[in-house]
Structure formats: structure tokens, C-alpha cells
Task: structure prediction
Amino acid sequence: MKNIIVVSGASSGMGKEFLIQILEKEPNIDEVWAIARSEDKLKELKKDISNKIIPFKLDLSNDKDLLKYKDRIDKEKPNVVILANCAGFGIFDHSENVNTDVKLNMIDLNVKAPVALIDYTLPYMSNGSKIMNIASCAGFQPIPYINDYAATKSYLLSYSRALNKELKYKNIHVLAVTPYWTKTEFFNRAIDDKKKKVVINYNAMYEAKDVIRKAIIDLYNSNKDVSCYGFVNNFQRVLTKILPHKLVMKVWMNQQKLDGTPNIR
Result:
């Protein structure tokens, strides 16, 4: 039986960085199943990083593509050492300005896909296997104008922590990673350059390699169910536990000069 690692959102951002670093951590792994929508980028990964990478061109917001993954894993029956759910996207805008189809697609990719991948993969995980879900610091609080994205990450954060408890009897560790603002391609889709900016104050911006480095350390620490990198990130996490969320939202809107209407400044 071959030992594999599965990484979604592998072609860029957190997923790509995880793939690079985990191959250094697990050099004896047989295969890395790299999932993304871009076939060209996946082929580049295999060429530039490792011939252990097996490209999977899948749109995880599509039910048929999710079933393609299930069919493949059911057929091959590998031992999955790590499943890393890194695919996702967000939109910065007032809720009334975001198309319903976009919202539902976001929910499918950010919530439905990781749940499905975990359910399809669990039968092929064994004692000591690990699951990593990329959530967000946005999951700690409601955030106007990033409403739907924050809600999906709140779900993923809560789901991951509870699932970690449920899978302890199998010695399978589940970790939620909660990045702060991080330099990735995430912003290419989140921000519409044709519109005025929603976020004008970021407080801090971290590097993906640093976020993932800590995430991998925490993934191998069974006592951790949340990985939170950076002083500003951890400070904000504490504040969102202490302060009423009405106040947290008010501070956020004042920082970004938002008034609650669909007209952005």
C-alpha cells in the first residue's frame, strides 16, 4: 500500500507552499496528490518541485469533480498520511453587491469541499494520519463587507476543532490554520480593481512560507487544534474572545471607513 499526501488548492498560495514544505518534512512519501483547477500549473509543480506529484485537475465546488476524487481514492485505496484542505476564496464587498451564485460557489468551495474530501478520505487514513484545514482569522468574528467569507471560515474553524475531538480515538489529528492577512493570490479574486477598495487598513501582512512553517510544526503537535501565526493575529484572536462582537465590528468598520451601505466610500 502506497503512502500519499493529498493537497487541495495546490497550484498557488498556501496550498503550493504547504506542498513544497511538506515534501521536505516527509521525503519518503510515495505520492502527493495535488488538486487544483489549473492543469498547466499542476504540471509545472510536477516539473519544478517533484516527480512524486500526481496532478488532479478538479473544480472542488463541482459535485461531479468531488465524486471523481472519491472514485479515484476508492479504486487505489492508498494510506493517506496527510490531507490538507487549502482551496478557497473570498470577496471583499457589501453583501448586496455580491452575486448569489458567487456566494453559493464560495460556500461550496470553502465549506462543502473540505467536508466532502475529509469524508471520502477518512476510510483510507490510519493511526497517526493528519488533516489540515486552512481557515482564517476571519473565522473568529463576524466581519461586515467580508461577510460570507468570514462565515465560511467560522464554520471550518468550529468544524475542525470538534472533528479533532471526534477522531482522537483513531489517533487522527485535525488542525485548523487561521492566517491573518497573508501575501498570496487570494487578493487577486477578493478585490475588484474596478471598484473602490473595501479594506484600506491591513495592520500587518505576513508571508505564506512563515504561516505554513508554523502550521506544519503545529500539525505534528497533537495538542494543537488551531495554528495562529503572528503577534497581531494572536492579539486580535484574544480581543475577539474578550470584547463583544458588536464592538469588534464597529472598530473594524471605523478602521476601514465603512458606513454599512452598499456604496463603498
Remarks:
- The longest helix spans residues 100-121.
- DSSP finds nine helices and nine strands in the chain.
- The CA atoms of residues 39 and 57 lie 5 Å apart.
- The mean pLDDT is 96.
